[in-house]
Amino acid sequence: MADIDAPIWLHPIFDETKTDNNITFSWEYEQTLAMNNIVNAQYFSQYPNLKVIVHHAGAMVPYFAERIRYIQGEANYQAFKKFYVDTAILGNPNALALAIAFFLAPTTCFLVLMNRWACRQSVRHR
C-alpha cells in the first residue's frame, strides 16, 4: 500500500467468537494493540510512505500518550504520531481535544473521513 500511496483503514470488527467482545471497550483496546504492533514492528521506518488511518480518533493512544513515551521511549512515541485518525468518537469534545493535541503536529495530518481519502500535503511533512 505504501508503494501505491494508498492508505490502510484500521477498523475493529465485532467478533462473535469472543465472549468479551463489545463495542464499548474491546474495540478501542484491540485497535490500540494493533497500532502498538505496527509501531513495534517498525513498519513506519520500513515503509516511510505508509499511511494507516485509525478509526475512533486513534483509540486509546491519545489518552496514554505520556505513558507510551515513558515506557516505550521517544522513538516509539513519535512513531505513534504517524497514524492518521478520524473523529468518530460520538461527540465527546474532551476526547477530541486529546486526539487533536496528540495527532495534530507538523508531521501529522488529522482528518475527517467522508468515504474518501484526503489530506492536505501542506499540513503533513514527511
Low-pLDDT ranges: 106-110, 112-126
Main sheet attributes: strand count, strand direction, barrel closure: 3 strands, parallel
The number of distinct helices, counting runs of at least 4 residues, comes to: 5
Bin the helical content: 25-40%
**In percent, how much strand structure appears in the residues?**
5-15%
DSSP strand tally: 3
Classification by helices and strands: mainly alpha
What does this structure look like?
With 126 residues, the protein is mostly helical. The protein is 36% helix and 6% strand. The chain has five helices and three strands; from the N terminus they run βααβααβα. The chain has helices at 26-40, 43-46, 65-72, 74-80, 93-103; strands spanning 8-10, 52-54, 84-85. The radius of gyration is 14 Å and the shape is globular. The model is unreliable at 106-110 and 112-126 (pLDDT under 50).
